[in-house]
């Protein structure tokens, strides 16, 4: 199962997220849940790097399916919008009855 922990400040500002695990929907290389979640997250990380000047920290461990991402300062408006778009996509996966058993999203207040 993919576990996504999203760290939110009191005013619904995302400070970072952790993504861990593999979906297990199907075999490696054909797992559409893993591919969808990975694409949403990696595209967001690439967009943050290309289109914002926000200072971030990102640690990855590909074999474990792990991405640990943090904003080092309060995110800009554009960065926050990009992350909210990623969260919307991940929530859409989780809301799908077929995929729901393979992804879990947790929001934690920081």
Features:
globular, single chain, 2 helices, Alpha-Beta Plaits, 5 strands
Q: Your description of this structure?
A:
- This protein has 110 residues and is α+β, with helices and mostly antiparallel strands.
- The protein has one domain: Cysteine protease Prp (Alpha-Beta Plaits).
- 35% of the residues lie in helices and 30% in strands.
- The chain is built from 2 helices and 5 strands, in the order ββαββαβ.
- It has a 5-stranded mixed sheet with strand order 3-4-2-1-5, covered by helices on one side.
- It is globular, with a radius of gyration of 14 Å.
- The protein starts with a strand and ends with a strand.
- The model has no long low-confidence stretch (mean pLDDT 96).
Short description:
This protein has helices at 32-51, 77-95; strands at residues 2-8, 14-20, 56-61, 66-71, 103-109.
Q: State the CATH architecture.
A: 2-Layer Sandwich
Q: Number of DSSP strands?
A: 5
- Kindly, what is the distance between the CA atoms of the first and last residues, rounded to a whole number of angstroms? 24 Å
Proportion in β-strands: 25-35%
Estimate the mean pLDDT confidence: 96
- Helical fraction: 25-40%
Low-confidence parts = none
Order of strands across the main sheet: 3-4-2-1-5
How does the overall form come out from the CA principal axes? globular
The value of Rg in angstroms is 14 Å
| Number of contiguous helices | 2
Biggest β-sheet description: 5 strands, mixed
Q: Which structural class should the secondary elements be placed in?
A: alpha+beta
What's the CATH topology label? Alpha-Beta Plaits
């Amino acid at each position: 199962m993919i576990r996504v922990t999203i760290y939110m400040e009191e005013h619904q500002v995302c400070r970072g997220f952790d993504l861990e695990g593999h979906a297990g929907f199907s075999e490696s290389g054909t797992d559409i849940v893993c591919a969808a979640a990975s694409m949403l997250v990696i595209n967001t990380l690439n967009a943050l790097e290309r289109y914002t000047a926000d200072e971030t920290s990102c640690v990855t461990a590909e074999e474990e399916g792990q991405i640990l991402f943090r904003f080092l300062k309060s995110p800009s408006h554009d960065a926050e919008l990009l992350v909210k778009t990623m969260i919307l996509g991940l929530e859409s996966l989780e809301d799908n009855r077929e995929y729901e058993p393979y992804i879990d999203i947790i929001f934690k207040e920081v």
